[in-house]
Structures are given as C-alpha cells and as structure tokens.
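Review form for a predicted model. The reviewer records the input and the model, then writes brief findings.
Reviewer: anonymous (R2)
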Amino acid sequence: QVQLQESGPGLVKPSQTLSLTCTVSDGSITTNLYAWTWIRRPPGKGLEWIGYIAETGSTYYSPSLKSRTSISRDTSKNQFTLQLRSVTPEDTAVYFCTRNNIHWGQGTQVTVSS
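Model under review:
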C-alpha cells in the first residue's frame, strides 16, 4: 500500500515562498498512469486542487494558481515538491499530497503570517 507524507515549515511569512515535500513509500513516482497531486483546504472552505506531476515529469496547474506554482520531483528520493511563490494569508491551509486523489497523505498545516 503506497504511503505519502508531507513535510515542510508550518509558518511562512507573506511574500515568501512556501515549499513542501511529499515523500512516497511503497510506490514509485515514475510508475505509469499516476498523478502525484497537491491539494489544499483553506480554513472553513472546501478542497482546492493545486496541480500535479505525472510519471513522465509533465506538470499541470490550477489556472488560478499557475503563475505562482511549481511542482517538481526527485526520483532518486521518490519525492515530489510544491513551491508556491509570493504567498499571502489567503494561502493558509492544510496541504495534502495524493496519488490520483485516492491515496492521501495526512496533510500538513501551513500558516502564512508575519
């Protein structure tokens, strides 16, 4: 059973870059037909899809976040990473990494505040 674990700082200052890493166990991020995805849930709101990186390394982003988002991967560590630039308090959320939105990490709280 694949397992995903998010890691990264819980507090980021406004205008800085949020960086989170998802470490994958018991499943390769280069396996065909899997989308390694980032999703977030702002306080009091529903889930928001951020984007994903495919097994080929191709990336796809939410149009509303595309200008500030980068998703990359390190195949040697079986990890993929989210970078969200120029954050504001509206980026405060619980951030999740998933495989095909079926297997999920437990989520990590990120607060944007000075």
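Findings: The CA atoms of residues 4 and 24 lie 5 Å apart.
Further findings: The chain has a mean pLDDT of 95.
Recommendation: see findings above.
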